[in-house]
Design a protein that fits this description.
The protein is mainly alpha-helical. The chain has 12 helices and 2 strands. The longest helix is centred in the middle third of the chain and has 32 residues. The protein is globular and about 70 Å long. The N and C termini lie far apart (60 Å).
Length: 337
Amino acid sequence: MELSDPVLYGIFAVIVTVLLAVDLFVVQRDAHAVSIKEAGIWSAIWIGVSVLFGLFLTQFHDGVPGENSTVAYFTGYVIEKSLSIDNVFLFVLIFSALSVPREYQHRVLFFGVAGAIVMRTLLIFTGAALIERFSWILWVFGAFLVYTGIQTWRQRNEHPDITDSSLLKRIRKVLPTTEDYEGDKFFTRRNGRLLATPMFVVLVLVEFTDLIFAVDSIPAIFAVTRDPFIVLTSNIFAILGLRSLYFLLAGVADKLRYLKAGLAIILGYVGVKLILEQTPYEYLHVPPLVSLGIILGILAVTVVASLRAGPPEDPDEVPAGIGNVFHSDHSSGAGRS
């Protein structure tokens, strides 16, 4: 039974709200450091829910005529999930550099993901509206993805310093902050003055990081399908499990040394695919199921090659910036070099 768009989006909003409520009030009812076992269990649960949704998608949503909604959903989900793994590298850097206690990291990621859901929903509907009104913008999306893939390949052994002291100083200039954490609070009052805590600074950095990745990932999913519902659901389900994925992969992030190279190839591929689909030559159009296989193949080769090679020996290939940047910046005024 196909449901109308308002009903579909309403049901999906209820599902996401319930899942977030379970995560906040059940999973993380008491602040604690998430173990590898717990992260593995919840990662499996999030992936299981996402897979079940995709398998039953065609029962209530027909999608774009001539398009297999299930294949489009899973292709978009795999793209977003693979790109979200790169987020883990930056989360490791942010939490380590700002010395976020392990028992509070889940809270930051929860609100970070909640904010990302709102932000990405707005970006997706904006992108869908632009595509419907200006079809030529798909050429722009394709070219942007190819450019991003090339840049990612060139910087595959580099790690952007998202915790650069100049960014932290700009945040503190707008939001006066305390030097120390106040439990898991984002704000606190001192002498009648409302101050942000380092927890809120971390949250701002997490949201900023997701915005950077959303600019890449959302056009990439539009290369798979123009159906806003599939774009939205595949994107949101992929990032819902990002918190558990972080705790599962944080300890082995340095072992995935070729991940960035693999993501560069995926971005370049979907960009070229999107451009070719704008041409009238049908033989240049890659079937959705073939695209899903290609993307999964690239990820498999990337992971296997990374595990066989082991962690990088060159210190320049390891993410820099591990240390207590927040306190060192306050005390010395010089920040990190």
